[in-house]
Design a protein that fits this description.
By secondary structure, this protein is mainly beta. It has a single domain, classed as Beta Barrel (Lipocalin). The strands form four sheets. It has a four-stranded antiparallel beta sheet with strand order 3-4-5-6, with no helix packed on it. A four-stranded antiparallel beta sheet has the order 7-8-9-10, with helices on one face. A hairpin with a 4-residue loop joins strand 12 and strand 13. The longest helix is centred in the middle third of the chain and has 12 residues. The chain is globular and about 45 Å long.
Length: 180
């Protein structure tokens, strides 16, 4: 998980496990015009795929691609054009700002076979968490598929051989769901 460095205003910290005093910080952070918001809203899921890693924000429609060796950001993908994301952003922007809280819409992220999967929640009158975005990572970011899971609220998932294994929070059960 990435975290915000207040002094350097970076979003990712890398700890050298052989020399625990060697910590490097890099990555761009979002500025929310409030110090507490900068800390809590700059969290990232970090996922490795080959020689790159990907930083996924839970509250901004941005995915960043970093080179593992030189720690440079190579590319970013703004997926705010997707209708469910547009509706989430409209809902979030309609709420009063509070420095102590925020709304996250990416509940889980997962990489499998060169593709990034994001479990997205729907904010608004009826909360749902049953949409998975499938984003191709190579050669460039590209939205591939949008899946709608059969239940209403899922908290986590994994993928094996074109099958989702998703935890349904309402029934407290793991569901096996084929990708179609």
């Amino acid at each position: 998980m990435g975290s915000y460095n207040r002094d350097l205003k970076t979003s990712i910290s890398l700890l050298n496990l052989t020399n625990k005093k060697d910590i490097s910080s890099f990555g761009e952070s979002f500025d929310f015009n409030h110090s507490l918001q900068n800390i809590i809203k700059n969290k990232r899921d970090l996922l490795k795929d080959h020689e790159y890693f990907y930083a996924v924000s839970d509250n901004q429609p941005i995915i960043e691609k970093y080179d593992l060796i030189n720690k440079e950001k190579l590319e970013s993908f703004n997926y705010s054009f997707i209708p469910i994301i547009q509706k989430n952003i409209e809902f979030i922007n309609s709420k009063p700002d509070s420095p102590n809280s925020y709304t996250a819409f990416v509940r889980e992220s997962y990489i499998d076979n060169g593709e990034l999967y994001l479990l997205i929640s729907t904010q608004g009158d009826k909360f749902l968490a049953n949409t998975i975005l499938r984003i191709k990572l190579r050669p460039n970011f590209e939205l591939n598929t949008i899946y709608h899971l059969p239940g209403n609220i899922y908290s986590t998932f994994c993928i094996e051989n074109d099958t989702f294994y998703a935890f349904n929070s309402e029934t407290a059960s793991i569901e096996k769901i084929r990708q179609n």
